[in-house]
Amino acid sequence: MAEMVSNKQVILKNYVSGFPKETDMYVTTSLIELKVPKGSNGVLLKNLYLSCDPYMRPRMTKDMEGSYIESFEPGLPINGNGVAKVLDSENPEFKKGDLVWGMTGWEEYSLITAPYLFKVPHADVPLSYYTGILGMPGMTAYAGFYEVCSPKQGECVFISAASGAVGQLVGQFAKLLGCYVVGSAGSKDKVDLLKNRLGFDEAFNYKEEPDLNAALIRCFPEGIDIYFENVGGKMLDAVLINMKVGGRIAVCGMISQYNLDEPEGVHNLTRLISKRVRMEGFLVSDYNHLYPKFLEMIIPHIKGGKIVYVEDTAEGLESAPAALVGLFSGRNLGKQVVAVASE
Amino acid sequence: MAEMVSNKQVILKNYVSGFPKETDMYVTTSLIELKVPKGSNGVLLKNLYLSCDPYMRPRMTKDMEGSYIESFEPGLPINGNGVAKVLDSENPEFKKGDLVWGMTGWEEYSLITAPYLFKVPHADVPLSYYTGILGMPGMTAYAGFYEVCSPKQGECVFISAASGAVGQLVGQFAKLLGCYVVGSAGSKDKVDLLKNRLGFDEAFNYKEEPDLNAALIRCFPEGIDIYFENVGGKMLDAVLINMKVGGRIAVCGMISQYNLDEPEGVHNLTRLISKRVRMEGFLVSDYNHLYPKFLEMIIPHIKGGKIVYVEDTAEGLESAPAALVGLFSGRNLGKQVVAVASE
């Protein structure tokens, strides 16, 4: 019989309504056998990094009508993207010692029976990057910007939640293409980050703008060609009245709406007509086939220092509930990661 | 000196807020010389048919922020699309006796100094068609459906304001392509028209549906691939929760919003993400270059009886204010035309 070890886990207590709280989750310890059942096709992972992402909020709700992913189950560990080391495998694609990224549990060790995992292709960058710039958020920024926004050199690009896991990359991609780039974020530190470290041309703190429309007119006197939408609600309404003819809105997320019982109404959609604007929602999972092309582009930029990536790392699984909840109050500065263990 | 004749005119009294009323306009009579000033590049038209179109409502408002077309001027005749005969011309493109369609005044005779007019290419169809199926609404349906919706055979297509000038054609185009087609309209007569004369697979009266979502689920158990949007507001919200993955929404108009001081909020835009929906506004004027191709397609269908066009004709310029106002209460059955004079 294989070794049994203790396994700390983050459990969802109950379905959540409104803003999630730390107490909607709890940390417990169970036992796990570090062995995959024979013939099961599964892998046994030691989790190294876990990712906190906005799409996890809707998963805390029971009935996610029209969703593309299932809800969490109260009483079971939360799951999401992470980076892990394979301790045992009955799956032909993975072997003991492999470093992998993809869907795993919020616990120290996970037995994954239907792996949605990829081998870590480059180990000479920080492993945590596979929860961010080299993982789902990185691919989201890449597919959303290059495939959905149809960007052209010199265009005026606006990004909301711009210092987040996805936004900070979209802004840097747009700068590489020679666009004029403005971001909004929710604190002075984030605005400083955008302007001084991430190379945005302008940035503003939406919480300190009494009139979002006025802020956008100030930053975009000629209007917006591309809006990379991460927040929804009032910001989208303000953007709609500042779009240029032929503008594009890539709808990546609407984080401002996820904690509301009834989403806010958006009032200015007639501008889609007068300005001939295309507004398009997308999911990164439709673009998985572009991952090799993405790596080819991004790895040299990372190594050459042309693209930077800002992470906010919480230490230890115990800090995971607060880290996840913090996303929705905007506490994180950059991509929110949880460091669970070292290799 | 040329003949002076009396010229009945429909004048906008004042800018309008809320629902327009007949009394927002008045009919008066002035005198006009049936002669174009030498060297003016103008044409003198005898108006035959005038078109009542939803986009005319925003033009009755003073400040149309973000609009693509100017407001009407109180005290002057309303203008819009029409069919006319050239009585005199100083413009090299038009000569006396030509039949033309395009922008003209709501009056018996119009002196047009900067013509936005086209020669009537086929005179062997009803001339009123150049306000509808062969004019701006026809081209709107053609460009909106074929160019914006990216339709495929067998797809499920929903059209709001489906018996109107544009909607009735979109539905017939979709049927020609082998789509499943459902329309909504605001009366039993309109629903009968859609099902019995225009070949729609299904139709419903939105005013008699207590729950628009339920009506859409009933008509589209598998969901909607293409929504041709003419109304906005609550209908759009109901459609959003019934879109299929990869669906498209062509935003042609939002007539339900034009008489409101503050447009209704649309709450279900997060569905754009989970269903990867593209929502795109368009203006027919961007597609003028396709008019010859459109005629090539539509004329044989009209002559062969494959496409029918339902008009609602008001007789005489005096009836024009009521006809225009009636658009916004849905009084018209089919394309609303005003017959001003015969050739």
From TrEMBL, chains A, B:
Cross-referenced CDD domains: double_bond_reductase_like (cd08295)
Alphabetically ordered keywords of this record: Oxidoreductase
GO molecular function, one term: 2-alkenal reductase [NAD(P)H] activity
Pfam families referenced in this protein's UniProt entry, alphabetically: ADH_N_2, ADH_zinc_N
GO biological process: response to oxidative stress
InterPro entries: ADH-like_C, ADH_N_2, ER, GroES-like_sf, MDR_fam, NAD(P)-bd_dom_sf
Stretches assigned to the Enoyl reductase (ER) domain: 43-338
Name of the protein: Enoyl reductase (ER) domain-containing protein
Protein's organism: Citrus x changshan-huyou
The organism's taxonomic lineage, starting at the top: Eukaryota, Viridiplantae, Streptophyta, Embryophyta, Tracheophyta
